[in-house]
Amino acid sequence: MCPFPERESLDLLSERRSSLLHALDTSLGQKITTTQEIRDVQWLALTKLIHHAYESVPLYQKKYDAAGFHPSMLHSLDDLCLIPLLTKQELRAASLDDLTSQHAPAARLIASSGSTGIPSRMFRDESSLWQFMAANMMLYHDWCHGRPYEEALYFVDFAPDSIDFVIADFLRTIVPEDRLLPVTLSTQEMIEKIREFSPQFISSYPSTMRSIAMTMVRNGEFNHQLRLLHLTSEKLDGNTRDLIQRVFPHVRIVETYTSSEGGLIAWSCTAGDHRLHLSENSGIYETIDHILVITDLTNFSTPIIRYSGMNDFCTIIDSPCACGSPMRAIRGLEGRSAETISLSDGRVISPYVLLNAMEEVTGVLHYQIIQHSRDDIEILIVPAESYIPASVCKALPIPIREKIVDQIKPKAGAHKVPLIVSHL
Ligand SMILES: [Zn+2]
């Protein structure tokens, strides 16, 4: 059954085509070649966005007034640090009225549900979604040397209101509907679709393609048609990459790092050294204690300005890249894999999963997860008054014992207290 609304009228379809063409024109016209050009574009967009946020989005009016911040305090990009950070809790706690710009153009409500089902919601301009799509298309264009591949296939999360669902809906402008398939299909059904369409291009997620590749390896099946694979939303680990390359020997893999809040944040470099270039023509990226802080310059409905809720550890690379791009880069999200928790049943849990799960627990002032051995994982909790004992044990997807403490000290000689420590 088709998950999308009825096919719109031809008028709307042609309106969508012109929106996409307009977004492509804008992206093409924005070819930036120097660091100074990036800073100029960012400064211009930031001043427009932050005045708009302060003047018409209640969330920011209240937040900035309470913090004593006014957009007129900014004189250059160097003043970025004066802007108060926006946390995930603030975004979650805000009402839809507080999140809505009074002067925003047509927008979609995007929701992403957390592990306990508390949705995080925001509005995204349709024009920013078109820009997101245009940027992705330009990326594929670069990766396929300007010669579009035939027969695309998309395995997408069709959770209602998810950004992927909205993008899939927009994709119907250029892709036949039967090529947009839900990831809820069985692995065998997806493999049959690959056989049926013989795509040269697939867009999906690492976990979905891992299942497909694992089943194909077991069946002794290989695919020589696939040329380009776009993977997003999850970290692609080395084992999965190797497995995919084995089953699809002629494929090139392009990864993008995206989120509901930040849109397109980074994409893999064509020079092939596994760095991901930050989308610095449409956003501003910083790290604070190695956590990525993002500002999305494309969305005026619920502006995302200095958002610290991504929970992604990374280090920004300034050094010039062999591909010639002036955009800085991150080397994957190495922080996540360096702090994985390995269980005796063979499961490997990424820090991202644990940090996200911890976002759902209320009443925690500070915490630290310590893996002493495969069977012994402890969490230190500095509780607030509202903390309900043992609630972390229910929230985390691993067996863990809780210890209530007054404070968590850094190791001797260090000044940071890592949230996850593995002694394995
Ligand atoms: Zn590069």
> Terminal Cα separation, in Å?
48 Å
Strand order of the largest sheet: 4-3-5-6-7-8-9-14-13
Fourth CATH level, the homologous superfamily of the largest domain = ANL, N-terminal domain
Number of helices: 13
Which stretches are low in confidence, meaning pLDDT under 50 for 5 or more residues running?
334-338
Report on this model:
A hairpin with a 5-residue loop joins strand 15 and strand 16 (348-349). The chain has a nine-stranded mixed beta sheet, sandwiched between helices. The protein has helices at residues 10-29, 35-56, 58-67, 88-93, 96-99, 126-143, 163-171, 187-197, 206-219, 238-247, 334-338, 351-359, 391-395, and strands at 107-113, 119-125, 152-156, 180-182, 201-204, 228-232, 252-259, 263-268, 276-278, 283-288, 291-296, 304-307, 316-317, 329-330, 341-342, 348-349, 364-373, 376-383, 401-404, 420-422. The protein is of the alpha/beta class and 424 residues long. The protein is globular and about 60 Å long. The longest helix has 22 residues, at 35-56. Bound molecules: zinc ion. Zinc ion binds next to loops. The site of zinc ion (ZN) has 6 residues, from loops.
